[in-house]
Amino acid sequence: MELRVQDGKAVVAGRDDAGEREVDPHALPLGAGLADALHEWAKVADAVARTDAPSDGAASALVTRRGRQLAGRLAADMRTAVEYTDPVTGELVVVDAPAETDAEPESVEEPEAEAPAPQEETPWGTGLTVTLIVAAVVTFTVYTLSVGLGETSQWLALLANALVVGGIAPSVWLARKTPVWRWVAYGVVAGVLAAWLSLLLTTLL
């Protein structure tokens, strides 16, 4: 197949059983806009050739480069080699059709989903035992401290309770989700509440 420029128009020539035939690019099954681009290139190439522009000039180089690009697109669409004579330099250029690849795209194996880690059983027996022991110790300590200071001054006992609770509150809050220390945290909270309830009952009675 040959690409030609005739009177500012692009013509595609080929041979069949009846001999050589020239057809307009619009009559061929070309990609979108390729036929119009070929005619536009032929018109510009004819104008540059008529002005006797130097073959190494910017306009000539642009026409040559554009011709190679369009010939490559024509060869790809028609799936055959295309030759053409550069209208500016007179050089015969042959552009081969791109090779078709029959290789199937490699399938991407999806990573297997990891099995969820088995959840540990909650040690209710041991945990509640630790909670009860800690609660008993904290209850006794807070109650004894509060009663001893209350004999001197109730305001002093109240201040001591506020300092103790305020000091251990951050640690208890952080330990509430730790697998082992959460039982200790539960015991501390239960012990403080039990001590305060005992102090309240003692005061009322």
From TrEMBL:
- Source species: Saccharothrix ecbatanensis
Instruction: Please verify whether the record's keywords include Plastid.
Output: no
Give me the ranges of the annotated region Disordered: 1-23, 99-122
Record's compositionally biased regions (Basic and acidic residues):
14-23
InterPro entries named among the record's database cross-references: DUF2537
Report biased composition (Acidic residues) as residue ranges: 99-113
Keywords in alphabetical order: Membrane, Transmembrane, Transmembrane helix
Spans traversing the lipid bilayer: 124-143, 155-174, 180-201
The protein, known as: DUF2537 domain-containing protein
- What Pfam family is a match, any one? DUF2537
